[in-house]
Amino acid sequence: MAEELKIRVNERLWTVAASPETPLLYVLTNELLLHGPRFGCGLAQCGSCSVLVNGVETRSCVTPVSSVADMPITTLEGLPAWYAAQKKLPAAPPLHPVQQALIDEQALQCGYCFNGMIIKASELLAKNPQPSDEQIRTAMNGHLCRCGAYPRILKAVHRASEAMAEVTR
Ligand code: FES
Ligand code: FES
């Protein structure tokens, strides 16, 4: 049965009516009209639905909305502001450096995996600003790209790492 729940998404508090077990992804997409997170497998296996909850990459397709009530949730739409807050920038850039790097590396093909790739890479770089190839591969391991853009994604994560280091210099 639907209940009134409060969720904090992209620094804004929303009141939604949903059954407590409703997947967070459905609430984000259908109630808040946030289409960064995407439905892929619905089984926590592809990563296309990922968001950050308390800064940790989380599969929204299998996360009951009630389990993240009052926790800070960041979707792709809120990622530049999340980054600006981390780096104490005066304003959010138009794109997170990972997003910009993926464009610069021309890594995009169909783009279906990119929400999850961006969310995961952003989480990784927040914890480990200069990851090795192996650390990137390990971190991104649970994110599937049906177009096989992995080598360009790897390059883009390194490029974003360099761009982020410039910001802090
Ligand atoms: S749709 Fe959530 S992991 Fe695939
Ligand atoms: S670019 Fe098509 S799924 Fe990754």
Question: If you had to describe this structure to a student in words, what would you say it looks like?
Answer:
The protein contains six helices and five strands; from the N terminus they run ββαβββααααα. It is of the alpha+beta class and 169 residues long. The chain has two domains: 3-75, Ubiquitin-like (UB roll) (Roll); 78-168, DNA polymerase, domain 1 (Orthogonal Bundle). A five-stranded mixed β-sheet has the order 2-1-5-3-4, sandwiched between helices. α3 (97-104) crosses α6 (150-168). The protein is globular and about 50 Å long. The mean pLDDT is 96. It binds FE2/S2 (inorganic) cluster (FES) (2 copies). Residues 39-42, 44-49, 59, 61 line the site of one FE2/S2 (inorganic) cluster. The site of one FE2/S2 (inorganic) cluster has 9 residues, from loops.
Low-confidence blocks of residues:
none
Structural class by secondary-structure content? alpha+beta
CATH third-level topology of the largest domain: DNA polymerase, domain 1
Tell me which CATH architecture of the largest domain applies here: Orthogonal Bundle
Strand content: 5-15%
Which strand order does the major sheet show?
Answer: 2-1-5-3-4
Q: For the report, how would you describe the main beta sheet?
A: 5 strands, mixed
Question: How many angstroms does the end-to-end distance come to?
Answer: 52 Å
Kindly state the percentage of residues in helix. 25-40%
Task: Give average pLDDT, whole number.
Answer: 96
By CATH reckoning, the class of the largest domain would read Mainly Alpha
Basic shape = globular
The rounded Rg comes to 16 Å
Number of helices, counting only DSSP H or I runs of 4 residues or more: 6
Please write the string of helix (H) and strand (E) elements.
Answer: EEHEEEHHHHH
Number of strands: 5
Ligand list: FE2/S2 (inorganic) cluster
